[in-house]
Amino acid sequence: MTPRLATLIFTLIPALIPPLLVASLAGLPSVPALAQDVSAIVKAADQYRMTADNLQVDTQVQLFNADGGLNKERRYTVFAQAGRQSLVLMQSPAEKGQKVLMLGDDFWLLMPNSQRPLRITPMQKLLGDASTGDIATLSWADDYTATLVGEEACAATGAEKQEKLAYVALSDSKHCYQISLQASRKGVTYQRIELWVGKQRREPVRANLYVQSDKLAKQAHFVLDKPGAGAVVSDMLLVDQLGNQKVTRVSYLSRKERTVPAEWLNPMFLARNPSLE
Q1: Domain residue ranges of the chain, discontinuous segments joined by +
Q2: CATH classification of 46-270, choosing from 3.40.50.300, 2.50.20.10, 1.20.210.10, 1.10.8.60?
Q3: N or C, where is the chain less crowded by C-beta within 10 Å?
Q4: Are strands 233-240 and 99-103 parallel, antiparallel or unpaired?
Q5: pTM of this structure
Q6: What's the pLDDT tens digit per position in 147-169?
């Protein structure tokens, strides 16, 4: 091919491509841009649960029977700190003095009459279907790789319809993004999460929670404290999918910014059973 012929061919190619096709291709988002958008959606959803890097969250966990009656309840003080660090103080009389410390992928249970921290997993049960990881590890954006599955109506499912438990409407969004979250580190509570986020306000609506064997362990439903701007998640409803279908309600009674002393995040210091106030 002569240089002159090659020049002529490359000059004619743009004119041979239908203008409508060019416009369509130009409007498609690039893969990196799409991935960035999904990451931003997940970070926005996180903000409804984790309103600051360092928080004190007073938490109540209630276990309901299948008929809607209250079975048990417990109270916890959670110090969620930056860098995947959390400390849970158990406040109910039956558990008073017990603590759970989470540093990255390492979890310890500290008993008041023992000077030896016990290694546990993030799936360690607190009450009902609420595990230590459910109330103390709060970041989807940091711990999971997100993929946009698609968009669909924010359809109500089982937990929202159980009026006898006084559930409220979980979201005023009519359309949701469905996002698949795959664990990016080993110390997370769930290996995979299918998350539905409101398209308009980016609020978390519900989630399917899968364990290591890829079995659906729980369904989570998120309740906002108020409509409109400034809302936060006030309650998380966990519906068992492996056995008894009981419902566990995790209520975030209060949140305030608080950075704890560094020694509070040391298992050997906590093993001496110090007073933490």
Answers
A1: 46-270
A2: 2.50.20.10
A3: C
A4: unpaired
A5: 0.79
A6: 999 998 886 554 444 433 434 44
